[in-house]
Amino acid sequence: MIGRGVCSIPECRGSLWSMGLCSKHYQKMRKYGDPLTVVKTTPDGHLREFYEETVLTYEGEDCLFWPYSKTTAGYAQMRQDGKRFIVSRVLCEEANGPPPTESHVAAHSCGKGHLGCVTKKHLRWATYSENERDKLLHGTDARGERCGSAKLTEEQVREIIALKGTEKQNAIAKRFGVRRQTIYKIHSGKRWAWLDEEAS
Fold it and tell me: CA-CA distances (angstroms) from residue 22 to 25, 27, 158?
């Protein structure tokens, strides 16, 4: 229980948080798989040096991966003037000029932006829709069964779509163990819309 006892790591006197560990060691265990992981911090100057001397000058075709801080989604990030920014967006502007609109995103032709790729030749400005289509081509989208919270398989959803208009949504929901709202969203095209398009 939180607040009772101390961390099981020798020399650590932190209050017990979970799994016999204090909050600091517990977070390291969750993130790295080892509560004793030493997290190296890199001065902002080193990141800027790597960006200017390695990333900007790299003319290769293969992915160049960012070895420093990344977002929770895996994209390379850097701090400047106290603010964090996504490296690929700044790099895309360096390589291709400013975005056509504020809503344009820096899209990776390699499909490895989420792995920290910072190869300028892989970057172009794209609309949100274009970037989503890229994700489908690369298999990096999180739709359907790839979504961690998905409760239905594609096969089940196809069956639900086929039942539209033949059975009440409450009955369909009960059969598949989901809420009626889920069936409504599938039938109205608010979820799994691409399967509905395939069926029509």
Answer: 6, 9, 47
Task: Give the global pTM.
Answer: 0.49
* Structure token pair of residue 45: 């100057």
> For the residues of 14-36, what is the DSSP string, one character each?
PBEEETTEEHHHHHHHHHHS-TT
| Residue bearing tokens 């790099």 | 91
Nearest alpha-carbon partner for 92 in 80, 105, 77: 105
For residue 35, with 0-12 CB atoms within 10 Å meaning exposed, 13-18 middle and 19 or more buried, which class applies?
buried
Closest CA to 72 of 116, 38, 109, 108: 116
Residue linked to tokens 């000058």: 57
pLDDT tens for 34-91 read: 888 765 555 566 788 899 899 999 999 999 999 988 887 788 998 876 778 899 999 9
Dihedral pair phi/psi, residue 22, rounded to 5°: -75, 175
Provide φ and ψ at 92, rounded to 5°. -65, -40
**For residue 134, which of 110, 104, 162 has the smallest C-alpha distance?**
110
**β-sheet bridge partners, residue 106:** 125
- Closest residue by Cα to residue 158 from 182, 181, 187: 187
